[in-house]
UniProtKB/TrEMBL annotation:
<dbReference type="Pfam" id="PF20171">
    <property type="entry name" value="OpcA_G6PD_C"/>
</dbReference>
<dbReference type="InterPro" id="IPR004555">
    <property type="entry name" value="G6PDH_assembly_OpcA"/>
</dbReference>
<dbReference type="InterPro" id="IPR046801">
    <property type="entry name" value="OpcA_G6PD_N"/>
</dbReference>
<feature type="domain" description="Glucose-6-phosphate dehydrogenase assembly protein OpcA C-terminal">
    <location>
        <begin position="196"/>
        <end position="376"/>
    </location>
</feature>
<protein>
    <submittedName>
        <fullName>Glucose-6-phosphate dehydrogenase assembly protein OpcA</fullName>
    </submittedName>
</protein>
<dbReference type="Pfam" id="PF10128">
    <property type="entry name" value="OpcA_G6PD_assem"/>
</dbReference>
<feature type="domain" description="Glucose-6-phosphate dehydrogenase assembly protein OpcA N-terminal">
    <location>
        <begin position="74"/>
        <end position="175"/>
    </location>
</feature>
<dbReference type="InterPro" id="IPR046802">
    <property type="entry name" value="OpcA_G6PD_C"/>
</dbReference>
Length: 392
C-alpha cells in the first residue's frame, strides 16, 4: 500500500478492497506504526489499534451517511471493529467492501487510539449474502453486538440471522416513527440475546432525579399515594407522544406496581397533543397525561423531556413533586416539592440530555442485566400500541 493510501485510511476515508482480502488489506493499511495485540512490540508506536468487541451496524436506508458521525462518536468511546452494512443500488448478487480507520485524539504523550470500520454494501437481491460475509470478519473470542437502526420487520430474516449470532442487540430506531411491532420484534426475549432500546438510555438522568425525590425512608410512603402523573415533552411529530416519554411512564408503572386500565387516548392540544392513560395504583385510580409540543428550530430533532410532575394524596393534604427544565434548551432541571416534611426551597441541578451517540455508547457500556428495563418493556409496548391506535 502506498503511503498516501495509508494516510487516507487513517484519516477515515473509505478504501475499496476485495471482499475476500479485507483482513489482508487491513494488515497492510495499518503499516508499521500500528501496534497489534500479540504482534511485535514497538518502542514508540504512533497508532494503537484497540478492539473490545465486534460491532455490526445495520443501516439499510438511503441516508446511511447520516449515521457516520454517530458511529465515529460511539467507536471513539467504545473501541471496536465496526462492520457497517448498507444498501446499495448495484444489481445482482454481489457484496462490495471498503475499509477505514476511526481514530480519537490522543492524550499528550500517548499514542493515537484507532479502531477499524468495514463497510459492506449489498443490493436488495444480495442481502441474504451479508451474514456469510460478516462471519469471517469477526474478531475471534470477542462478543458480537448488533446495532440495528431501521424497522426490523422490513428485513426480518436478516435481522433474526444476525441476532442469532449476537450477544447483545441494541435497537436504535427512530423516535418518533418506530412502530410497536418493530419494538416487539426487536425486544423479543425469544431471540436469546440481550436486547435494549437506545431511547431508554436517554432517561438516565430523569430516572435518577425522580428516584432521589424519595431517597429518604420517611418520604417513600408518598410513592404508594401517587394518583396522577404529567410528563411534558417536545417532538418533531407532536401529534403523538415520543417513545422517550412513554419509557418514563412505563418505568414508573413497572417500579410502582401499577396495572393498566381501560383504553388510552390521544387528543389534539393546541399545536401538540395530549396522551391520556389510566392505571390502577395502590392509592386507587391513577391518571397519566403526556403533553407533547413541537420542537423549535434551535433544538436538535431528538425528542426532549421538559418535565415530569407527580401528585399524591397526602395524609395532610395534596403533595406535588415536580422536575422541569428551566427552558426547553437548557441542561438545568429545577426540582420543586410541595409536601409536608420536605424542604420547600427549589433546587436546580445539571442534567443535560444525552444525544443519540451517547445513548448508544451508554447501551454498550452498561451491564447486560437491567431488571428495570425488562419490567418496563411490557408497559412500554402497551402504551405505544394504544398511542398508535389512537393517532390513526
Amino acid at each position: 500500500m502506498s503511503e498516501a493510501i495509508s494516510d487516507a485510511f487513517l484519516e477515515g476515508q473509505g478504501i475499496p478492497v476485495p471482499l475476500a482480502q479485507i483482513d489482508a488489506s487491513l494488515e497492510k493499511l495499518w503499516g508499521p506504526a500500528a501496534e497489534r495485540v500479540g504482534g511485535p512490540e514497538l518502542e514508540n508506536p504512533t497508532v494503537t489499534r484497540v478492539v473490545l468487541a465486534n460491532l455490526v451496524v445495520e443501516r439499510l436506508t438511503p441516508d446511511a451517511g447520516a449515521l457516520r458521525p454517530v458511529v465515529e462518536t460511539v467507536v471513539g468511546q467504545f473501541p471496536c471493529r465496526a462492520i457497517v452494512i448498507r444498501l446499495s443500488e448495484e444489481p445482482g448478487r454481489k457484496v462490495s467492501a471498503e475499509v477505514s480507520a476511526v481514530c480519537t485524539l490522543p492524550e499528550p504523550g500517548s499514542p493515537q487510539v484507532c479502531s477499524e470500520r468495514i463497510v459492506l454494501k449489498a443490493g436488495r437481491d444480495a442481502l441474504d449474502l451479508l451474514p456469510g460475509a460478516i462471519r469471517p470478519l469477526l474478531e475471534a473470542e470477542l462478543p458480537m453486538v448488533l446495532w440495528w437502526t431501521t424497522d426490523p420487520t422490513e428485513h426480518e430474516e436478516l435481522f433474526r440471522d444476525l441476532a442469532d449470532e449476537s450477544s447483545r442487540i441494541m435497537l436504535d430506531l427512530p423516535d418518533p416513527g418506530a412502530s410497536a411491532a418493530a419494538l416487539r420484534l426487536g425486544l423479543d426475549p425469544d431471540l436469546g440475546s440481550c436486547s435494549r432500546d437506545a431511547v431508554w438510555y436517554g432517561l438516565i438522568h430523569w430516572r435518577e432525579l425522580v428516584a432521589q425525590l424519595f431517597d429518604c425512608p420517611i418520604h417513600r410512603q408518598s410513592l404508594g399515594r401517587i394518583d396522577a402523573v404529567r410528563i411534558d415533552a417536545l417532538s418533531s411529530d407532536p401529534s403523538t407522544p415520543p417513545r422517550l416519554a412513554l419509557w418514563l411512564a412505563a418505568w414508573l408503572a413497572a417500579q410502582l406496581g401499577w396495572t393498566p386500565e381501560g383504553t388510552p387516548e390521544v387528543a389534539p392540544d393546541g399545536d401538540g397533543s395530549t396522551f391520556r392513560a389510566t392505571f390502577n395504583a395502590p392509592a386507587g385510580p391513577l391518571f397519566l397525561e403526556v403533553h407533547t409540543g413541537p420542537l423549535t428550530a434551535d433544538l436538535t430533532p431528538t425528542p426532549r423531556l421538559l418535565g415530569v410532575a407527580l401528585s399524591a394524596r397526602g395524609e395532610s393534604g395534596p403533595e406535588s413533586f415536580r422536575l422541569e427544565r428551566t427552558s426547553p434548551g437548557s441542561p438545568d432541571v429545577r426540582i420543586h416539592v410541595d409536601a409536608p416534611g420536605y424542604c420547600r426551597i427549589p433546587n436546580i441541578v445539571h442534567a443535560d440530555a444525552l444525544d443519540p451517540a451517547h445513548r448508544v455508547a451508554a447501551a454498550l457500556e452498561l451491564s447486560r442485566f437491567d431488571p428495570p428495563f425488562e419490567k418496563a418493556t411490557p408497559f412500554l409496548l402497551w402504551l405505544l400500541e394504544h398511542a398508535e391506535a389512537a393517532a390513526r
